[in-house]
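Lecture notes, unit on protein representations.

Consider one protein chain, 293 amino acids long.
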Amino acid sequence: MAEELSRRTALKNMVAGTAALGVSAALPSFAMEPYKSTALKGNVNHSVCAWCFGDMELDALCVEAKKIGIKAIDLVGPAGWPTLKKHGLDSSMCNGAEINLVDGWNDPKFHATLIKNYTEMIPKVAAAGYKQLICFSGNRRGKDDETGLNNCVAGLKQVIGIAEKHNVVLVMELLNSKVDHTDYQCDTTKWGAELAKRLGSENFKLLYDIYHMQIDEGNVISNIKKYHPYISHYHTAGVPGRNEIDDTQELFYPAIIKAILATGFKGYLAQEFIPKYKDKIKSLRDAVNICDV
């Protein structure tokens, strides 16, 4: 059923894009460049994660992203900000203060380093005109949910005031612990939302990674509806495999994006799939088109 709906969506987009050119809509749905004749609808703020296109220079990725209509590049630190500014692109999710994905706020032995890093980075993010800075829970290493929550609260409270002062949002990413990030603690939306509730600040939110949460908990649309007040950012990728979000995988992204928009979401949706096809930029264009509901 999802495959058939995806084909219908592709055909609908193709008809809209080819009619103005007088080209027959009977051609295969992906035989044409999807952005040659149709502007994006403007309902979604599109972004793309730089690391997924790591074989491209950031400058070249920015050029291609702008052609597509993408407004921002995700997961770029201070060294890359001048390049983004040169191209008039936003840094939709800044990084560079975290230690890594496994040593995070849930372990007090990392607090001193993290507090120093975030205390220094938050003002830099604000001075550059950006709004969001990523953070991570870290791995459990035997800690139960309650211990991890308490440790995260104790550490993050040391920097949340700085984030509030500079109008920067600290955003903890939800990652799956079944396939890609074994032992990661913030692996369910419920746990992340509980952390946000305990911190009680609008300057702490969640990065809901659709790929990761499909693997760990499923019920993507239901959880988005339930927990959306705690979510400020979304990532995409195909399940399984983390590749293109086309009809080769199990998620039907148009319905998911419509559900996100229905919550009143005005933030960024960033493509974070790893292209497996030779023409990676076409894969990116197609992904944006699929999500541009």
